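Saturday, quiet lab. Running sequence design on the structure tokens for the scaffold JK sent over.
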């Protein structure tokens, strides 16, 4: 298993998150790391992800849900 890396891209907004495969990122530790990156950087880039629609929806639900607009 690769370790998740979070690298800030500019100032206080944005980070690139690598070392995570969103197709299988279902463990609590991976989701906690990703959620923390979102809180800390407000925007995260997740490069090189190859998700079909079902995988994207499953990941979105795991992250906190969809069809919710703040």
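Result came back. Writing it out in full:
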């Amino acid at each position: 298993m690769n370790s998740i890396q979070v690298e800030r891209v500019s100032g206080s907004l944005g980070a690139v998150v690598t070392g995570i495969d969103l197709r299988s990122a279902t463990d609590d530790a991976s989701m906690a790391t990703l959620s923390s990156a979102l809180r800390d950087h407000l925007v995260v880039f997740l490069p090189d992800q190859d998700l079909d629609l079902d995988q994207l929806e499953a990941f979105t639900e795991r992250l906190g849900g969809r069809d919710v607009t703040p």
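Notes for JK: The chain is about 35% helix and 15% strand. Helices lie at 28-41, 53-63. Ask whether to fix the surface positions before the next round.
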